[in-house]
Specification:
- The chain is built from three helices and four strands; from the N terminus they run H-H-E-E-E-E-H.
- A two-stranded antiparallel sheet has the order 1-2.
- By secondary structure, the protein is an alpha+beta fold.
- It has one domain.
- The longest helix has 23 residues.
Length: 72
């Protein structure tokens, strides 16, 4: 009977530890709010975040040099 109580105590302790770790994890909803669109450079086809791309004439470019060279 004592072994059963010891087993239940260990099991309760493990569940308590796992519940504590779960509370410390960052919220997945907060992470999804920070997503950004990825666009493709019209010249070299490199994938870049939209905020880092250069938009010209309805197209996205990865750098100023590729914007000057134009779409390929």
């Amino acid at each position: 009977m004592m072994k059963l109580f010891l087993l239940l105590a260990v099991l309760a302790f493990v569940v308590w530890l796992l519940a504590g770790q779960r509370k410390n994890r960052p919220d997945r909803k907060a992470q999804s709010d920070t997503t950004e669109n990825i666009v493709v450079c019209a010249h070299c086809r490199l994938h870049v975040p939209e905020s880092e791309s250069i938009q010209f004439d309805g197209r996205h470019y990865c750098c100023e040099e590729h914007r000057k060279l134009g779409a390929s």
